[in-house]
Amino acid sequence: DWTPDSFIETTVAGLKEKLGGDKVVLGLSGGVDSSVAAVLLHHAIGKNLYCIFVDNGLLRKDEFESVLDSYKHMGLNVKGVDAKQRFYDALAGLTDPEKKRKAIGRVFIEVFDDEAHQVQDVKWLGQGTIYPDVIESVSVKGPSATIKSHHNVGGLPDFMKLKVVEPLNTLFKDEVRKVGKALGIDPNILGRHPFPGPGLAIRILGEVTPQKVAILQEADAIYINNLRSAGVYDKVWQAGTIFLPVQSVGVMGDERTYENVVCLRAVESLDGMTADWCHLPYDLLAKISNEIINNVKGINRVVYDISSKPPATIEWE
Ligand code: XMP
């Protein structure tokens, strides 16, 4: 019978045998899969696992610092890499969603390759691939898939020539969560909403600038904190705030304002393939809207997305 504990025991033993004294590099994303994969590998090979966590400047407010902290608390050998400016430079002037995604994928690979080169004699690339990623023939999701789509672009980066070790590639998402729980991983990491690899870049419609990122991070933090304190965060499958490329007239005191609009999105879903918009309570929406407009400079209007998938998608880009 499959239990998280039996899975952990046989997997760790198998990894020890397979990897021996070899070194492994692994990119952490802050998400469930890469975190669980890292902890399993850590149990097997300890400091020979070199984790790399890249700050692409497109994460939620304070996420890089807090997630890096919890990784360190778990005892992982993890290096946080501040690559914000490299991503912002690559995104400057881009408005097309697919061009934005490609630029982010390309810079991620460059940064990761630079970091992987710093690890002497590394033999393996660790990945948090889960079973649905394996069977999904064409995937546009996640760093591993981003890497796949770059296969044919002028030769492989060196880290892609490494042997690949994927300890979760037989598991479904709910099993990964159970294994993570049995490993004692922070419930905040295990219970976190899905978050796209390109991050806030695809929630800022049009060109991404550090200023827009900063505004969106503030509004989004107010939204997510309110979902948590109202006790609805865990009932929502995914939520996020979108920065619209629209200015509208407002009034603040005696002043007329002409500022941006953010849209709140929250959906219920099982796997992201279909999704219904969440019927969040009106008074919660009212509180969030007031807090955002009163506290986030540059935003004078908040709207709520009442579209389901299909025909809309969860993200706007
Ligand atoms: P859509 O917008 O297609 O999103 O309804 C379905 C799920 O996929 C996530 N998503 C992405 N994840 N890279 C990712 O890693 C991407 O480019 C990307 N685009 C969408 C989205 O957040 C939702 O969970």
TrEMBL record:
<comment type="subunit">
    <text>Homodimer.</text>
</comment>
<keyword id="KW-0436">Ligase</keyword>
<keyword id="KW-0315">Glutamine amidotransferase</keyword>
<keyword id="KW-0332">GMP biosynthesis</keyword>
<keyword id="KW-0547">Nucleotide-binding</keyword>
<feature type="domain" description="GMPS ATP-PPase">
    <location>
        <begin position="2"/>
        <end position="192"/>
    </location>
</feature>
<feature type="binding site">
    <location>
        <begin position="29"/>
        <end position="35"/>
    </location>
    <ligand>
        <name>ATP</name>
    </ligand>
</feature>
<keyword id="KW-0658">Purine biosynthesis</keyword>
<protein>
    <recommendedName>
        <fullName>GMP synthase [glutamine-hydrolyzing]</fullName>
        <ecNumber>6.3.5.2</ecNumber>
    </recommendedName>
</protein>
<comment type="function">
    <text>Catalyzes the synthesis of GMP from XMP.</text>
</comment>
<comment type="pathway">
    <text>Purine metabolism; GMP biosynthesis; GMP from XMP (L-Gln route): step 1/1.</text>
</comment>
<dbReference type="GO" id="GO:0005829">
    <property type="term" value="C:cytosol"/>
</dbReference>
<keyword id="KW-0067">ATP-binding</keyword>
<dbReference type="GO" id="GO:0005524">
    <property type="term" value="F:ATP binding"/>
</dbReference>
<dbReference type="GO" id="GO:0003921">
    <property type="term" value="F:GMP synthase activity"/>
</dbReference>
